[in-house]
Structures
1.
Amino acid sequence: MNYILTTAISHKASDIHIEPDGKIVRVRYRIDGVLREMMTQKISLHPAISSRIKVMGKMDIAERRRPQDGRIPVAINGREIDIRVSTLPTTGGEKVVMRILDSANLVFDLEQLGFRQLLIEKFKRILDRPHGLVLVTGPTGSGKTTTLYSALQILKSPEKNIITIEDPVEYQLGMINQVQVNHGIDLSFATILRSVLRQDPNIIMLGEIRDAETARVAVEASLTGHLVLSTLHTNDSVGAITRLVNIGVEPFLVASSVIGVIAQRLARKICPACKQAFEPTAEMAARLNLAANGTKYWKGVGCTQCYNSGHRGRMGMYEIFEMGAESRRLMEKNVSAGELRALRAKLGETTLFDEGMLSASQGQTSLEEVLRVAWAPAEEKA
């Protein structure tokens, strides 16, 4: 187990998967967002491995029929690393997933995260507003929490009272009050949020809007002089607006409260050690609507440094929808997502796909990655 943990941390893995598979135990690491098989062990070792993890995570080693959650704080190479453990009973035995929270890998600088200068200016302009609701949206594992933490790093000062409500608190931040959700004692997002509003906050960071009650309290807080930052699971920035209405928030309240939405994805960067010029196939050119303007594209051919994947490290792709008078008028009328996207296009705003293609043309990521994380069929864009 010590070897599995130290190797995963040295490879900058975000997760470790330990799963019984027939006559073997398979160990996989999620590196740069993709699972890679690192080793296998005899199935006879599986009970000992899972019991060892449970002891480390202060879990019940006798309970194998129910899912369990635990936490393992470890010190490796002189730094503290937090590991969240989840077990799940399967037909072959217990599957264990370990999420590695290593503060050494944290980056709060917007430019290093992948924001272009134009988008940084737009993001900071949204954060300069004294009150309103700012939403960060994207699939699980797309870096939403890191973006929120980066915003808090920009906003924090001795003059401001900043309180976060998280499930769970992933990293400890200085000068910020962090509260953890605990469903066992009925400490939900909505319950804590109501209490936080009596704590004289200037800025509230809400880990996730999951239901109508939390959404309404967040909207009310943003309308009563607080800056509220939160996340939603939608495909793009416009989808966050329609999602709030679908949850049950009145369109006029959404129009009054939301001041900006950031949609994001994480794309793998091309490995610098095996980077080569690349000529897109006719099929790829047609799918991505590539113009024959001589733009040069790149890809990684695979080497030992990138485990023959052609990619090493990750970068963010971002789409920002800053609310203006025209977009608010449309939102009050409860128009479709397609009409809001048409307005964004009319205003010359870039989409996730546009940002991805720009990164590909600059040699930062590959066209395959743009297709994987940011491309959407025509009917989805409508």
Note: The chain has 15 helices and 15 strands.
2.
Amino acid sequence: MTTESRAALTGRDLVLGYPRSTVVHGVSVELRVGQVTALVGPNGSGKSTVLRSLARLHPADGGAVLVDGDDAGPLTARDFARRVTLLSQERPHPAGLDVRDVVAFGRHPHRGRFAGLGPADHAAIDRALAITGLEPMAGRSVDQLSGGELQRVWLATCLAQETGVLLLDEPTNHLDLRYQVEVLDLVRDLADEHGTALGVVLHDLDHAAAVADVVVLLHQGRVRASGPPADVLRGDLLSEVYGLTVRCRTDPETGVVRVEPQRRARPRREHAPPPTTR
């Protein structure tokens, strides 16, 4: 995991809200080349709203979004989509298409209005399929895929877009253990091997500890702490933010922080012995 790199996408002093309420108050977050930044916090803390604002899908009432240090405002939608892509939680089910057809959707910002796929498009699609391990199923219908496999297809679609910044909103949600690990490994590989700047909203704090270079802890629409996982995923901070006792320890074998919320102590029920038979 890298420690210093160029800022690829920055949200500076973002103020975000809805018609009758402000939900994010002056939040700043910086996504750097070759790094994974995880946004964590309780439900309603503003994580997904900040991510959507970084993707220019939620207009800011204050602050600015910068791409490579410059204001993103003047960029056209097509130019912005060539530099930043978002994998959101809400995605349509592309019935009747094969995997390669769905991944090809990612080439839309690079194509003319009525242009077909050219050599550069096919090369980008091939690369995305290879990175996500989908080459063997490129011709399969997406209707035949599991939830985890379909998640990889959508990730490949984002990779085919060939942006330097990838935003992921709860990419491990609804996945079983195997596919959670595969997605997190892919996120880490994209940063380490391909230099992608990644911003990831995660609910699972152990996932954030395992995959992130930087963790941004949000609480009530504000940044409560930001920094390396070991500095942010601390028992005192998490207990304060989540409203329950949380203990954190460092795994002696991996060096990764483990987050251990403490359940309320409840007296054990005494079970009646089974009836005896004569």
Note: Residues 24 and 221 are 4 Å apart (CA to CA).
3.
Amino acid sequence: MSVVGWLSQPAVLPWVALVFGLCVGSFLNVVIHRLPRMLDREWRIQCAELAAEGPPGVQPPVAQNESPYNLWTPRSACPGCGKPIPAKHNIPLVSWISLRARCAACGARISARYPIVELAGGLVGAYATLRFGPSLAALGAMLYCWSLIALTAIDLDTQLLPDDITLPLLWGGLLFNLGSAFVPLGSAVIGAAAGYLALWLVFWGFKLLTGKEGMGYGDFKLLAAIGAWLGWQMLPLVILLSSVVGAVIGIGLMVFAGHGRDKPIPFGPYLAAAGVIALFWGSEITSRWIPILK
């Protein structure tokens, strides 16, 4: 039996996907930390150019004095002491546990988010292969869920849903459904359009009634991306689940954590959670518990 054939065995594939997903989760932590900072740099450069601080085509001063910063450069380092993290301390889950959640150099505490994201990435990989087997749908499910994990953490940190993730996620859903990996292409296209328009209409309705903006355009794009992967038929369930979870958590924050009503609560994580639930268990939920959405 070839290596590929052995790895695709039902008893082996989930474990391989688990390990691979843990590594992807480690990379997602880099994306979550660096992408907002990369976007901030780009915005400052654009603002400097618009302010005519330099001639066209010449990098403004704000960019000249800064070292390269992207997903690959510089090496990962401790936020506390700035010392680069060696490879032996960058093993998913294992390093965080062995170091007892502290930097080996300065003893600064390492956030529990890092192993949580890594574990989520691994579990997604394993469950996708259990659910869909060695198939294109399994690969698509992993990419879809990994993207939602990154978007969730970034939205919680910055209340932003970067186009750098939402737009490729949308196009990825349409491309995977060219072969009907999850739904027929027609359903995916309608899902993308309906997902965007649904929250766009809610946004403008709320703004006309209250004079306030209840959500950002990133939420529209995220629901459009979910619709591109799961089809328009799943959108009512996604909206229902995200609204219920968001309302419960929002009320809980106000009652138990003293969260003010004027403080915004990101909606992206609730959409992402609902999108994952709908991917793996949407059909069962609609057929058993909410037959009106079938």
Note: The chain has a mean pLDDT of 85.
4.
Amino acid sequence: MSEQRPPQGQEPPGSTGDMQPKPADEMADYEGRSLLEGKRALITGGDSGIGRAVAVAFAKEGADVAIAYLDEHDDARDTAKLVEAAGRRCVTIPGDLSAEAACVHAVETTVAELGGLDLLVNNVAQQRPADSLTDVSTEEWEATFATNVHSYFWCTRAALEHLPDGAAIINTGSVNGLRGNKSLLAYATTKGAVHVFTQSLAQSLVERSIRVNCVAPGPVWTPLVAATMPPEKVSSFGEQVPLQRAAQPDEIAPSYVFLASERLSSYYTGQVLTPVGGETHPG
């Protein structure tokens, strides 16, 4: 069973430093094999949670990394230190990616600072639980789509000008986009859109050999959960899956390494990987 967690008392988007217990998100025991040597990556939502673990894993595999994030500057600095401790460069890019201009800025800054772009990880997300559809305002619905779907479109469109043939794009989906979630109506709908966006984009980029894939995790202990879930759900978060616990970000990041590495996943495009804790039919 997962350990009981106290009420977190956080406001969105949440901070790693205020989480109890702290997530495992530093890839401390991970050993790279130069799978991404010389690559340049942009990871949106890269300051914490899955994004942080992916940034560190990529660095340990030899990639320089840019992380785009909203305003969680302490988390971003901590992630940058972890990347730099692995011997790679880290560029931190604050900004609200629910706006197109911020997405374009993130891509252009990455290219300018790192000298190019080989890997794009669209990972930023927001969510807000609601008891019913009537409790979801139009503003909340549109804001969730702007962050969770539109930013993926805007970042990808800006990146395509710079990505070489043979590059890789990885989107973050969710088990909620595979089977729905009555308390996360807007979020689950956006994640379903991300899955179809992945499959459609993969088809459109196959002639350039740009592989487009998606990781759709089950419950993962991240600041987004701590800052948006009610206390009673936080305390037992993840217990509903067959493994009876939430994943740690460190357990999800290797899926991104797999999909980023041409050596490991050259025959994968348009796929949705589902590390969901034992659900055999999450759709």
Note: The longest strand covers residues 64-69.
